[in-house]
Design goal:
It comes from Vagococcus elongatus. The protein has no helices and 14 strands. It is an all-beta fold and about 130 residues long. The strands form four sheets. It has a five-stranded antiparallel sheet, with no helix packed on it. Strands 2-1-6-7 form a four-stranded antiparallel sheet, with no helix packed on it. The chain has two domains: about 45 residues, no CATH class; about 80 residues, Roll (SH3 type barrels), CATH 2.30.30. The mean pLDDT is about 85. Strand 8 and strand 9 form a beta hairpin.
Length: about 130
């Protein structure tokens, strides 16, 4: 399965889904052009965008989980919220409250690609959720 990406368009303040993205690389270039269709015939590469990769997991509601998402876990009296982040090797949840890191291993079922989490927003469209 190929990885999916989405992009935060910093200029337009819009989240672009992976279906909207166009990624191209010219021979000899060290960088990728990330764009999207603005109309049937025009492709725009002039906006500053932040690329985020899918974890390959879906939350309890069937929402795909990406880097930059703010997720919540609840199990009785125990709960936490955090942001989905990625280091060189794996995805993890950086805690907002409490402030600690959590592994997807504790909340994910890789056999059916789900996690016992709920996506409650993302760091770009819902920054207020990062406040304590």
């Amino acid at each position: 399965m190929l990885p999916k990406f989405r992009a935060w368009d910093k200029d337009s303040k819009v989240m672009r889904s992976w279906e909207e993205l166009i990624m191209e690389k010219d021979d000899g270039d060290d960088f990728w052009l990330i764009g999207y269709r603005e109309s049937r015939n025009i492709v725009s590469y002039d906006h500053d965008q932040i690329l985020m990769q899918s974890t390959g997991l879906k939350d309890k509601n069937g929402v795909e989980i990406y880097e930059g998402d703010i997720v919540k876990f609840e199990d009785g009296a125990y709960s936490y919220a955090g942001t989905v982040e990625k280091d060189d090797y794996y995805f993890y949840i950086q805690g907002i409250y409490p402030e600690t890191a959590y592994s997807f291993n504790d909340v994910a079922d890789t056999s059916n690609h789900t996690a016992d989490l709920v996506v409650i927003g993302n760091i770009y469209e819902n920054p207020e959720l990062l406040e304590k």
